[in-house]
Amino acid sequence: MKLPKRIFPDDYFKKVNKCTSQTESLPFYIKECGYCNERKFVLGNTNNFSDILLLYPVSGVVRFTKNQTTQFIHQDNIIISACNTPLIFTRATKNWEFFYIIVRGSHAKLYYNLIRNSSSVLPGSPLNKILDYFIEAADLNFNKELYTDMRASLIIHNIFFELYNISYNILKTKAITPVQETVINQCLKYIEHNYKNDLDIDTICNEVSFSKYYFCKLFKDHMGITIHQYVSEFRVNKSKELLTYSKLSINAVAASVGYKNPLTYSRAFEKSMHMTPSEYRKNF
């Protein structure tokens, strides 16, 4: 599946919506949003239960601390949390860029409670539409017009729907049988140990002794992406380590992670990261 060509803002910014009474009567409304690269980003010091944070990292890694628990958040992992406790984001790599939206509205808490989990993190993917909705929200010009706020409400509804879809699929895959889960784990380990070699779907399915059609469907239901997409993302992530910590040429990096053709590697990397391997090396 080809990723959409996304256009990011030219500059970093924050926008505050001067809400009217009509705005506040909507199912969802945007209180504040932005596109930022701050070294440290903190919300929740006022302990506001009505504010819901939606945050989408588009590059880099950040330490996310909530309730004295810290975890590392990577690109495309979506944060969703009520701002009833301090939420602290501290940049862990040279650069960290993110979109964020603070949401309120008559339906905000209800939808949040349908999606929330103990970690406040949901696994995203550049293949879904969520990032496009964040970009669309960031492009809004808040001017006290009800039309703009109604459009914002629809955007937030779409984000919540996509997040609910992710949550639903996670719950559904928890019902997977032990045998199926063992086979999925066997597949993931096989990819981890053999990503440098030729890997095609037939080889992987033969390794786990499942039919191609059945296992491909099982894998996508469990992981949310196809086997081919998983292998590509795994190789790209491995290559990011080499680009950051080694002096290997781009061609050598491509070969080291299983790509015989450097052009194929560059295209896969750009689809995943929205930048070339050379640009990534320069920035990270």
TrEMBL record:
<dbReference type="InterPro" id="IPR018060">
    <property type="entry name" value="HTH_AraC"/>
</dbReference>
<keyword id="KW-0238">DNA-binding</keyword>
<dbReference type="GO" id="GO:0043565">
    <property type="term" value="F:sequence-specific DNA binding"/>
</dbReference>
<dbReference type="Pfam" id="PF12833">
    <property type="entry name" value="HTH_18"/>
</dbReference>
<dbReference type="InterPro" id="IPR009057">
    <property type="entry name" value="Homeodomain-like_sf"/>
</dbReference>
<keyword id="KW-0804">Transcription</keyword>
<dbReference type="GO" id="GO:0003700">
    <property type="term" value="F:DNA-binding transcription factor activity"/>
</dbReference>
<feature type="domain" description="HTH araC/xylS-type">
    <location>
        <begin position="185"/>
        <end position="283"/>
    </location>
</feature>
<protein>
    <submittedName>
        <fullName>AraC-like DNA-binding protein</fullName>
    </submittedName>
</protein>
<dbReference type="InterPro" id="IPR037923">
    <property type="entry name" value="HTH-like"/>
</dbReference>
<keyword id="KW-0805">Transcription regulation</keyword>
